[in-house]
Amino acid sequence: MLCTLRRWLRGLEPRARAHLERGWLARYQPWLEQRALFRFQRQPLARGVAAGMFCGLIPGPLQIPGTLLVCAWLRGNIVAGGVATFYTNPLTTVPLYVLAFYLGALVMPGTHTLPAWGSVVPGGDFSVQALGTWMQALGAPLLVGLPTLGLVMAVLGYATVQLLWLAPALQRKRRLARSR
């Protein structure tokens, strides 16, 4: 299955290059090519996933532009980076922010307690404004915990892509060692 995924990803590269040769992106192709932004190889994919995992914790509509900038800086695949940001969505944002709060509280000196939703939001009704008020109440531990969690997620994403990409080669090596 992993070999099939690798072949499929490598098959995407010529199609992405063909799209780059046409239209408004054609004049930027040398810059894009130099930075490996559309290469579907192990290192650019791993760096793209790491950038997407880190930038996925950026609030709202800044995730994809942030990922594009980080991918250009790290020479990562922007398709993989953009897809990797989708681990954050309306269902996972609150649990991730709570995890970031606890991670920040672990890193910061002193004791910090997670403010209860009812103590911050009068009436306990859920709305975007109520969520914003609750996030402000999380304070400094959240501000420290978000980049820390982003770095942890980026390292895990990078390592996962590296391991998944190398898994078929490692399996072949083991089979050859057993057959000798």
From TrEMBL:
Which controlled-vocabulary keywords does the entry list? Membrane, Transmembrane, Transmembrane helix
Q: Which domain of life is it from?
A: Bacteria
Tell me where the transmembrane regions lie.
Answer: 94-117, 137-170
**What InterPro entries does this protein's entry cite?**
DUF2062
- Asked whether the keyword Protease is assigned, the reply is no
Q: Where is the DUF2062 domain?
A: 29-168
Q: Mind telling me what this protein is named?
A: DUF2062 domain-containing protein
